[in-house]
Amino acid sequence: MRQPSAGNKARNGLAKKQRVFLFNDEKGVSKVAKTWPEIRELLGGKGAGLFDMTRAGLPVPPGFTISTEVCNEFVKAGNKIPRPAWDQVLAAMKVVEKQTGKKFGGGVKGVRPLLVSVRSGARESMPGMMETVLNVGLNDQTVEEMIAVTGNARFAWDSYRRLLMMFGSTVLGIPDEKFDEPMERMKHERGYKLDTDLTVEDLKELVAIFKQVIKDETGREFPQDVYEQLKECAMAVFRSATGHKARTYAKQMGWKSTLPTAVNVVTMIFGNMGDDSATGVAFTRDPSTGEKKMLGEYLVNAQGEDVVAGIRTPKPIEEMAKEMPKTYKEFVRICNLLEKHYKDMQDVEFTIEQGKLYMLQTRNGKRTAKAAIKIAVDMAKEKLITKEEAVRRVKPADVDFLLHPQFDEQAVKDAKHDGRLLATGVNASPGAASGMLAFDADLAERWGNEGKAVILIRPETKPDDVHGMVAAKGILTARGGATSHAAVVARQFGIPAVCGADALQINLSERTVTSNGHVLREGDWVSIDGGKGEAYVGQLPMVHPSFEEQTDLVTLLKWADEISAKNTRKAEDGKPRRGLQVWANADYPKDAQRARDYGAKGIGLCRTEHMFFEAERLPIVQRMILADNNEARQRALDELLPFQRSDFAGLFRAMTGLPVIIRLIDPPLHEFLPSQEELIREVTRYETKRHYEALGEEEYADYQNKLALLNAVNAMHEQNPMMGLRGIRLGIMIPGLIAMQVRAIFEAACDVKKEGYEPMPEVMIPLTGHVNELKRVQPELEKVAKAVMEEKGVKVKYKFGTMIEIPRAALTADEIATMAEFFSFGTNDLTQMTYGYSRDDAERSFLLKYVEEGILPDNPFQTLDRDGVGQLIKMAVQKGRATRPTLEVGICGEHGGDPRSVAFCYEAGLNYVSCSPFRVPIARLAAAHAALGIATK
Ligand code: PEP
Ligand code: MG
């Protein structure tokens, strides 16, 4: 037999269990939920937010949350709200009536009717779920009472017709059109444009029509009983939690089941109840500059939607200080409180109802990159957050954005003012660019190669256009969004792009574009801002943001460096290692100086061959290459030496006290000669001419020279030069060349040391594949170094090391480290050789498709491939350090400036990453983030 007493007990327990929580019921909530996740679980996201704001002492409109548990009970009970829970709702309504001094359902003379909103809110927000019903509590009687107390018939009737619409569609499931159609018809018939043109009489008529719609569609009258309205709304919210949309969403998110929702019942607040009422929005700090100055707008005697409808112009928030001084003071106090509570800049919505201020919403405000940095730094200085938290909050992309060239703000304003805005579209790839319009990819490529600034304009782009896209400064399309081909390619290559600017009428046969009253032809200048999605006629002036002037960024990165310097990590070899340093790739003293100014702690790569291309030097280099005997070659090398020496001296001066890695010549020599095709064309031209007439003296000399060059190029021709005679192989075949470079390095080092600088040269041998290559080359070079120091009577600290760019070098790193004192991972080549891709060919043909279609997660030349290339790096670090524990290890491929790759380098135990000077600030932040364990996306 059943134990009746036990059943009763359980039932009593159930009856007593708290399911409804007033926003100010801190005690009740704390009995059931202690931690923030538990509170969110119980009250849902929105309910938890309202509870938290109330707890923080903010004036939130009174209300309560029906917990998510009731949702579960509702489903279990076959879509019924259990009696004990509903009793608690009724009790909570009584408290809210007391808190507000208003009466739900009205009917008490001199007391205002209470209206509420009913809102859903699960633990996680679920788009597509039932959202909100406003103005619950209005009926034929309370609408009149509202008019009596507010004196605003229009507002009362408008609120009533909104309730009918929302209740009808969200609660009763009547299609929106059933309400929209009669309203649109009425507006059309009466010649109105805006909803706000509707008069009181019109609105009354609409209320009657909407009631009839409800009756026709459901066979029932709209409930005049306000508690029935409330219950129906709550039930609709609960039903929606397991409805079709919620199930689909849960499935999409990969959740096991749908989430139960809470129901929030919130007192309606009206900002249109007289001149002591208002509504507004504000940011607690300026979201575009980050300045600690509130930025907002408000409207007296208005509803939020008046602002949206644009029928009245809001006033700046400062005016509130004069107009409503007491309330303004209170508002400022609350904003400060909010910042203290959330420790971040807030974006708030507020309403003042007859002098009483209510906060309707607060959330962390969206902000520009500049503001993000300023706010983080200021808040740390104000001791609101720690320096570490400030560093955490700023994203590497914010730093990136700040250092990109941008259009001058005033020039943009002027252009807009003068009607020079050509079109707006999707902000597909950030950055500013100006250039001449090219209507096809071939022309863009040609002009690009001629050194012209080009903006490629197309209706949309296709894979065949990539050659022109990469040659362009910017891309502008009329069709396609953020995931269109143009957008994806542009982002891949860091080219600014505006896509889907559909106002552009592009006529490809006439090669014109028409938009916003402008007709532009091929070759006309335009400027695009890919971060904003705007295109302008003409060339807007650009500003290169100066790093030093960005004092907040400088401060933030100083803190980032402190974090990296303090940090100790356990590296791959199990040993503790200091945080990651950031060095830079720089070939010239001015780049090195910039790198140093940007905070680089060394030069990780100086590509010496770049200097060979300069006009004065190229002929000497070519002579050196073409020399058919040792003396002639040595003469050319002797001529090159002073150039190299002065290049290196400049670098050492700029980087005094810091290491400078100088790489010996790397590329195949044919790169210093004209192209084979060009030479064949020239020689053929001379030979054809010669067939008919004699060549002049100069012509003949040039012909002979071209012929010699062609023979040399033919002799040097390689099937695959990237895997041919280059790097250390070249050093072995032409030993005098690298010996000259090492001599130049040490002569320069000794000279600048005599001047009082502290040079720290590190000689890097490229493309080693076998330790024997180093064994052959390195001792000879060290001899040169020592000889120079002896000649000069000066000693400098130096190192000899190698690049790890070939998989075999990584695999045999233990052997390589017997010779090399440092490793630098050349991940451009290492990626090419690990994947077996030739980068240029891959990016031009299949790589993009691979990324687009998810065959590869990323372009491996931009973001380091952890699983493949990364494995080789980790292995090489471990093996290298096993042989030589003091081995210095870094990376100098382009990945050194990519935040995700920086995070990998940190994990792999590298000492530094080296990247382009412009990316040094980003890498410094990324290195600190790695030290803080923040996953970089
Ligand atoms: C590399 O291969 O990563 C590298 C830095 O060398 P380069 O790009 O000059 O071949
Ligand atoms: Mg390389």
Description:
By secondary structure, this protein is α/β, with parallel strands linked by helices. Among the domains are: 278-367, ATP-grasp fold, B domain (D-amino Acid Aminotransferase, Chain A, domain 1, 2-Layer Sandwich); 404-544, Phosphohistidine domain (Glucose Oxidase, domain 1); 581-668 and 719-873 and 883-893 and 911-919, TIM Barrel, CATH 3.20.20; 675-712, no CATH class. 49% of the residues lie in helices and 17% in strands. It has 39 helices and 35 strands. The strands form 8 sheets. The protein has an 8-stranded mixed sheet. The chain has an 8-stranded parallel barrel with strand order 28-29-30-31-32-33-34-35, surrounded by 8 helices. It has a 5-stranded antiparallel sheet with strand order 1-2-7-5-6. Helix 17 (396-403) runs antiparallel to helix 39 (920-932). The longest helix is centred in the C-terminal third of the chain and has 25 residues, at 630-654. The chain is elongated. The two termini are 63 Å apart. The relative contact order is 0.06. Mean pLDDT is 91; it is low at 1-13. Magnesium ion binds next to helix 34. Residues 577-930 form the PEP-utilising enzyme C-terminal domain. It catalyses: pyruvate + phosphate + ATP = phosphoenolpyruvate + AMP + diphosphate + H(+).
